[in-house]
Amino acid sequence: MQTKDLLELTKEFGNPLYVYDAEKIESQYKRLTKAFSKVEKLRINYAMKALSNVSVLKLLNNLGSGLDTVSIQEVHLGLHAGFTPDKIIFTPNGVSFEEIEEVAKLGVQINIDNLSVLEHFGTKHPKTPVCIRINPHVMAGGNSNISVGHIDSKFGISVHQLPHLLRIVENTKMTINGIHMHTGSDILDIEVFLYAAEILFNTAKHFKNLEFLDFGSGFKVPYKKDDIETDIEELGKKLSKRFVEFEKEYGSKLTLAFEPGKYLVSEAGYFLAKVNVVKQTTSTVFAGIDSGFNHLIRPMFYGSQHVIENISNPKGKERFYTVVGYICETDTFANNRRIAEIHEGDVLCFRNAGAYCFSMSSNYNSRFKPAEVLWKNGKGHLIRERQTMDDILKNQIMVEV
Ligand SMILES: *Cc1c(COP(=O)(O)O)cnc(C)c1O
């Protein structure tokens, strides 16, 4: 979609605003499935924690996607959006046993990442097939918060615990129908991915009733022009070939599953905010926008660098700006960034605002969460209203004090 469309949408729906381009989500989905077209049974489970608006979920459901969920609330949202339970996988970490049981009762595939939970679940529900999340201990991922496969990580069952795992399965007579791994986000090196895949294959050989192998996610998407990204076509070629070989070794057909979040929605998203103030100090020029890390926390939380464009003055002479928010503490979106000359009232556009942006927003400073718009067939559809004072007061109780 074009920047003039985005500018129009801010006039229609106000600021700050999230916009998602449906066509981009579709093209990413198709690019991924095409890269693995040599695999007979492929399943993409969209990791909905990246962006969980029900209209976006519905769009992905219509494309044939499944869903990767991490909480029972996400499972309920997925069901609400039209996913059938058999299209959903539940991959929690550190949730209560009751929550796992409740989700299993809904008919959703459970993925267990802890031996004591596995033993408990297998003893109580030996007839419910479960998937196990292994930790291959492969160091991957863009930064320490999103790299989850290393030795100290809280995620997964260590591959070194395989003997114990097998004993639990034998003792409880439970069925393991899938093996899963997810080593982190922003994995660049295909060889690292393939290396981890070998560990997964080696683990899989020990189980007789597998239906699927889930390779998680972590594809790196470009954040700026000419940025490095995972070569999906190359990965598709190499992993598909190896997967088909493994099926022969294993002796039956398996489903190859992925659960991308960022890959499907990151580039489809735009965050639009208006410049309230331009402030010159002794060291820099600040552009202060009508938003903050309450709406987009990734720069402050992960050090993410989102491209920022001045869509009100795209042809303007470029100058250096530090873009900041209105939160009453350090709230920096970008330091010393070249942006077309900014005037108060201009609209700035943040790229890659589809994944982990709205879904991580909060009401800090008692601000409203932004509205969300889905751009489809050349038209903007409001898919979430901007909050109001009622939302801020909802659930609050003022007692006699
Ligand atoms: C967060 C998460 C994903 C998605 O990761 P992306 O980097 O957004 O693709 C996939 N699987 C699991 C288990 C996750 O926790």
UniProtKB/TrEMBL annotation:
Amino-acid positions noted as binding pyridoxal 5'-phosphate in the UniProt annotation, renumbered to this chain: 218, 356
Catalytic residues (positions): 328 (proton donor)
UniProt subunit comment: Homodimer.
Reactions that this protein is recorded to catalyse: meso-2,6-diaminopimelate + H(+) = L-lysine + CO2
Span of domain Orn/DAP/Arg decarboxylase 2 N-terminal: 23-266
CDD domains given in the database record: PLPDE_III_DapDC
Top-level taxon of the source organism: Bacteria
Keywords: Amino-acid biosynthesis, Decarboxylase, Lyase, Lysine biosynthesis, Pyridoxal phosphate
Protein known as: Diaminopimelate decarboxylase
GO process annotations (BP): lysine biosynthetic process via diaminopimelate
EC number(s) given by UniProt: 4.1.1.20
Xref: PANTHER family: DIAMINOPIMELATE DECARBOXYLASE, GROUP IV DECARBOXYLASE
Positions contributing to substrate binding: 298, 302, 329, 356
Family listed: Belongs to the Orn/Lys/Arg decarboxylase class-II family. LysA subfamily.
Any one GO molecular-function label of the UniProt entry: diaminopimelate decarboxylase activity
PROSITE patterns attached to this UniProt entry: ODR_DC_2_1 (PS00878)
Source organism of this protein record: Flavobacterium capsici
Domain Orn/DAP/Arg decarboxylase 2 C-terminal: 18-354
Function: Specifically catalyzes the decarboxylation of meso-diaminopimelate (meso-DAP) to L-lysine.
SUPFAM superfamilies for the chain: Alanine racemase C-terminal domain-like (SSF50621), PLP-binding barrel (SSF51419)
